[in-house]
Design goal:
Blueprint (H helix, E strand, L loop, with lengths): L3 H21 L2 H22 L9 H6 L6 H11 L22 H24 L5
Helix pairs in contact: 1-2, 1-5, 2-5, 4-5
């Protein structure tokens, strides 16, 4: 059973969670949710192409796809920066992650995730797997 639609559905929910977190001022969580949305959308695309992939690096998931636009690679690099630091205080010399994240960080991460999800969704729709 191909679960690509399930992964894409959750990616879209994670992206919406990122937007809500931004509105609440929870910028670190907005960034992490944006990273998660991208990771899950890319896993959906890989599943739709018959490949099950593991790992959490958005960049590695993008690089495993053929002929991706350079902008997608740049978005992936940006989003990977939000996998660990938004969640763990020991990512910083002192202070909580919330002390370091800004609205601008959240907006940039969400924009990057929107592009990744849109790219994946478009390719899934072409294959008949879109949600």
């Amino acid at each position: 059973m191909n679960r690509a639609r399930d992964w894409l559905k959750q990616a879209k929910r994670d992206l919406e969670h990122a937007r809500r977190s931004r509105e609440l001022g929870d910028y670190e969580w907005a960034c992490f949710a944006a990273q998660q949305a991208s990771e899950k959308a890319l896993k959906a695309l890989h599943l739709a192409r018959g490949r099950e992939v593991w790992g959490h690096s958005v960049l590695k998931l993008v690089e495993a796809l053929p002929s991706v636009p350079a902008e997608l690679i740049e978005h992936a690099k940006q989003l990977d920066k939000h996998y660990v630091p938004p969640r763990y205080p020991n990512s910083y010399p002192e202070g909580a992650p919330a002390d370091f994240y800004t609205q601008k960080d959240a907006e940039e991460a969400i924009r990057a995730a929107e592009e990744v999800v849109r790219y994946c969704e478009g390719h899934l729709a072409e294959s008949g797997e879109g949600a």
